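Q: Give me the 3D complex with adenosine-5'-diphosphate.
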Amino acid sequence: MRVTHLSLGDFRNYGAAELPLAVGPNLLIGRNGQGKTNLVEAIAYFATLRSHRVTGDAALIRSGHESAVARMRVRAGEREVLLDLQINQGRANKAQVNRNSVRPRELTRWFSAVAFAPEDLIIVRGEPSGRRRFLDDALLARHPIASGALTDYERVVRQRTSLLKSARARGSAALSTLSVWDDQLVEYGVQIMLARRELVRDLSGPLQDRYRSLVGSDHSPALSMSESVADAIDAAHVSRETFDTHAAASVSRETLATQFRKALSAVQSREFERGVTLVGPHRDDLLLSLNHLPVKGYASHGESWSFALSLKLALAELLRSESTAGDPVIILDDVFAELDASRRASLMAAVSDYEQVIVTAAVEGDVPNDVEWNRMRISAGTVTPMTGASDESADTSERAE
Ligand SMILES: Nc1ncnc2c1ncn2[C@@H]1O[C@H](COP(=O)(O)OP(=O)(O)O)[C@@H](O)[C@H]1O
Ligand SMILES: [Mg+2]
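A: Here is the predicted complex, encoded as structure tokens.
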């Protein structure tokens, strides 16, 4: 699929903006702080219903305004669809598909994208929350329906946790209602755990292929889940090294639900002491390894980048192979500046056969020059299409920062 046009109103630093996009490679070029990321952030929002760089929507609304609007025309094969989003301060966001009101989460059914950004290194080197976020964005892209389970689960964890906190203050009287929350925690939690296990299983092959073609050698990149449920009960009786991603994904819901309940009773007294929900997918982690060593703490900077890029490329490939609506849109936000020449070339080669690629860069020199870019200059919240060959003199004079 591809975005043919994006319109913004009071979004970030844009009062009003029109961005026409072409099939194939698009390049948004401009000095730092001009609004390049803001444009791709708006596009990526339609795929995940959240920003790829901040939590919460407040920062997306142009300062001094009450709401932001983003409208996107998306073409998938012969079908064109108009997606509308209104992000509101202090009240619910609104969405439309072809001018019919829908719940915002419906938008993700109509658009899919995989966004790469410098922050992706956090997936590999940062805290578990960054990896859970990667998993959950991937689940949303893969099964738009999963957004229901994800939001329901988050809500249940919040409510259950506040009940635990109040039980600590008021004694065990509040606990009779806990079992209601436990039921829901297990129900939604199991759905998420299984969907993540399937994702890990299905990403593993493409990850190895993508890593090998990016780096030119095989470092056996591998993925597995580290689950708080299994840790709590040690039920699986398998060490992490032998955790079989194929077997893990084919466990039945019932089996996993039983394990989840066992884990809850195993941690119950600690939960009361601490007033925290201690087991479930919100406490799980995605383990990444190269040559059987954890990436975090062992891999070099370059290897970590290669892993992060391969993971995203693997996701794009998986989405492409499963979707009837065609390729996800590939967004590369300021990524080339992070990479050496050989990784730049291999990354570009890896995405070149996607229907649409949107790249941002501060200077042309950072992006491969053997590409027929559709170029747009971004300057202080205005978009100007550039025709013909690159305007190198302007680029060098506008060297970033
Ligand atoms: N909610 C907002 N209201 C007004 N301006 C904003 C808002 N959020 C970000 N900005 C401005 O947008 C600019 C950054 O845009 P960004 O897209 O990140 O730039 P870049 O071209 O470097 O990617 C900054 O000048 C920032 O002050
Ligand atoms: Mg940027």
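A quick observation: The CA atoms of residues 49 and 105 lie 7 Å apart.
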